Amino acid sequence: MLNRRILRIKAMQALYSFYTTRVSLIAVVRDELERTFTATAADHDLSDTEEIDAHRKQALTLYDENLLRKKIEPTQATADEVFDEVSEAIDSYYLQVNSEASRVRKQMLSATHDIQNVYYKFLLLPGEFQHIELLDKEKREASRFGKNQVWHHHFINNPVIDSLNSLQDLQREVTTQKLSWQADASLLKTWFKDVLQEDETFNSYQQKESPTLQEHVDALVHFYKKIIFKKEEIVEHWELEDARWSENGTIIKSMLTKTIQGYESDLNEPLELKTISVNEEEDFKFFETIYDATIKEDDYLEGLIGQRTKNWDVSRLAITDKIILKMALAEMMHCRSIPMKVTINEYIEICKLYSTPKSKQFVNGILDVLANQLTSEGVIKKTGRGLIDNK
Questions:
Q1: What's the whole-number average pLDDT of the chain?
Q2: Longest C-alpha distance within the chain, in Å?
């Protein structure tokens, strides 16, 4: 299920997308400005080429020097035409940046919420393989060779799968969200033949005369953990379907196994659907806060990092390291109930997963110094649980 580290990782990935696009936009808008002051036979009197070239150089210089200031001040040396075009270019850049920040934010939240629907869809998988196994049984019974094979087709009568197939809450979500494996029908048949039937543990289950209830449960847990989420040829398919499968798959697998392991045959509804977060409203508020605060406080955070990396060109820091530093500082400042040590430790762990081998020590050092500085300045203020271990 979702935890705060996964949310931090997803926010980091979204911010990475935003920041890389922002860098690209600087160049895109600059190129458009340059084209405005490029002499062409169709749009200009070529006798004015020298003046146009001078305006182009002036415009690009003004753009480069004033973009981060968000506006330019007119001077006597600036031609009116140049001033107007550069002002318009800078306005266009920030309009596009704000639009991109909103787009990435929306996509980040939507993609994370969609994990719930993927979980529902994966709960349909055992029923799909149950149907495939029924067809396989009919085929074997019609074959002289098949009658001599020991394969009892226990998925057909697996009580856990039967409960999944009749679970009203699941069927309601499936209908509402229009979830189906129909487009992958041939692929599932291939996996049944080439993967499931070749799996040693699954074969052992199918060769039992009369599996116990626990063996039915264990077989389904194995189906998810060791086949659907483990076998290379199947995992490769999920990775092509979802660029964030390394995180999303872990969440979905946990939700699925907890669902199956929670099976209780004596209840009217033996299975209970899981949600991606126990405290979804609180978790998503945290999720939004670290994304929004990192972007809103970007200039301030850039300055803080620059102060503590005087021997480095802050613009040349690994972009992942810079994002991690900004996120951690934003979290310290805006999430008062989270202890600073928790925040620092979490982002160091993320460094281990997503940055360079030396990043861990670098990030730890910068955050430790800035955390103490901002606390003494009153910028970081912790309350409640956030006061724990903040020495």
A1: 91
A2: 97
